Amino acid sequence: MIPTEWQGHRRASDGELVGYLVPGDGQTWTPVTVFGLAVDDALDRDDAERRLDEVGLSHLADRWLLERPGRPEPIVVRIVEADPSVLRVASVDFGADVEYGTVFALDVPVDGTLRRA
Helix, strand, or coil here: 96? Predict the structure, then answer.
């Protein structure tokens, strides 16, 4: 579940939630995706908001690598659903030992098991 101290940032044009601002040292904020992965280093608030506006929801269309316990290689996945408590990703990896389309549910904020492909 998204921590209560994280502040949601919405796109001005349509009010869509595009990410969160994670408070830092009182002067900085880290912009993160709707599922909790940092999109940049800590920035001042205006720059962090601007960064989220630039990135928008584009990361939802990216391919990701999912680390799974007991697997030497990560699985290539795509995001199928993101909400404040769970991120669902589906395997799009024909070479993996899991069936194509298998859905994995990850707690939000996502830990180090998911990274950009």
Answer: coil
Q: What is the mean pLDDT of residues 47-67?
A: 94
DSSP state of 85: S
Inter-CA distances, 74 with 64, 77, 103, 112, Å: 9, 9, 14, 12
Span 80-102, average pLDDT: 93
* pLDDT at res. 13: 92
pTM for the full predicted model? 0.88
Give the contacts of 93 (CB within 8 A, at least 6 positions apart).
75, 76, 77, 100
- 31: burial class by Cβ within 10 Å (0-12, 13-18, 19+)? buried
